[in-house]
Amino acid sequence: MDEIFNVGETILLDDQPLSLVTRAGVETWTEERIKHSYRYDQVRDPVTGQMKYRCLYAKDGAGVSFVLVNDPDSDNDGRVILFDKRRDPPCKSL
């Protein structure tokens, strides 16, 4: 299982920092035909304490993983999007 830590403002996955990507960012990758893939991992919701899913992306040519976040200009302030169940694809109907 991957180890997940939140160290200050940096989110780590297996001791490597995660970059952030919004739905619009993923849509841009798709429009520009940049190959990418996604997977889910399970994390504990810091507010409710319940187990939820978050979506992690890998993008061709990038040496880091990306975690799906809300738009920073939205009411959710760019927070990591947590799902009650896995969605396929994750960027639809959020």
UniProtKB/TrEMBL annotation:
Annotated protein name in UniProt: Uncharacterized protein
Keywords: Plasmid
Organism expressing this protein natively: Roseobacter fucihabitans
Highest taxon listed in the record's lineage: Bacteria
Lineage of source species: Bacteria, Pseudomonadati, Pseudomonadota, Alphaproteobacteria, Rhodobacterales
